[in-house]
What we know:
- The protein is α/β, with parallel strands linked by helices and 286 residues long.
- The chain has a single domain (2-285), classed as Alpha-Beta Barrel (TIM Barrel).
- It has 9 helices and 10 strands.
- The strands form 2 sheets. An 8-stranded parallel beta barrel has the order 1-2-3-4-5-6-7-10. A two-stranded antiparallel sheet has the order 8-9.
- α4 links the parallel β4 and β5 (138-142).
- α1 packs parallel to α2.
- It is globular and about 50 Å long.
- The model has no long low-confidence stretch (mean pLDDT 97).
Amino acid sequence: MKLGAHVSTSGGLDKAIDRAADLGCETIQIFGSAPQAWAFRPVSEERAETFRHKAREAEIAPVFFHAVYLINLGTPNPALLEKGIDSLVSYMNLAAQVEAAGVIVHPGSHKGAGYDAILQQTVSALERVLDSSPEGPWLTLENTAGMGQHIGASFDELGRILSEARPGYRERLKICLDTQHSFAAGYDVATKAGLDSMLAEFDECIGLDNLVAVHANDSKYPLGAGVDRHENLGEGYIGVAGFENIMSNPAFGDLPFFLEVPGFEGKGPDRQNLDILRDIRARVTA
């Protein structure tokens, strides 16, 4: 189990490794561009090599990118769908360039059309991304919290996307599990019975072998609230005991955990949150 965080790339992609090392990260998630904009600037090979070298020296791996928040694979707007596909292709190429494990993306929203109406569009868009992307990085869908008309709050919805993809594409699609989104969507990850039930459903609908990353976030709202609001570890409704439950389960034993929390000083993932994760890992693996 590798522990890390979403880390800023301000000043250049390789600066994220410096920040990650200062935090004590063993693995990181980063953006490849501004998360609220479509603009993407390719990374020079020199800077990519600097990133790769620093990551090797600091023994930080795996690296995952998080796609921009504007992407919506369920959009009824063809122009926005094309922008989303192009953005994901750029990110997948960058992931391959710096030897990252994959790109994590929110599937988006069906905008009231209903899940069944946008399923084939979503699958087709993902296949088009993979058609234009190099082999290697995984295109990784993240489960959602169940807000509004978002796609992928249930494992059935995510599983159907994977199962509808054609052979050759399906193997390159994976899942990132967000603990807060799961809790908000009604999966009680904080208790043993609830976590066991969730994992059984995940395995039936998706397959646990397709789970490749975890977003480790406490929840600002109670179980089943359907609200995407992260909290610092131990300050939310999942709590330290809930993360002990999660991290002691063998299903998570080999996965990277990424913090996406507000931070105890409001500046994003910090050493204090990472220390809590490290302490839990030490207790449950002792």
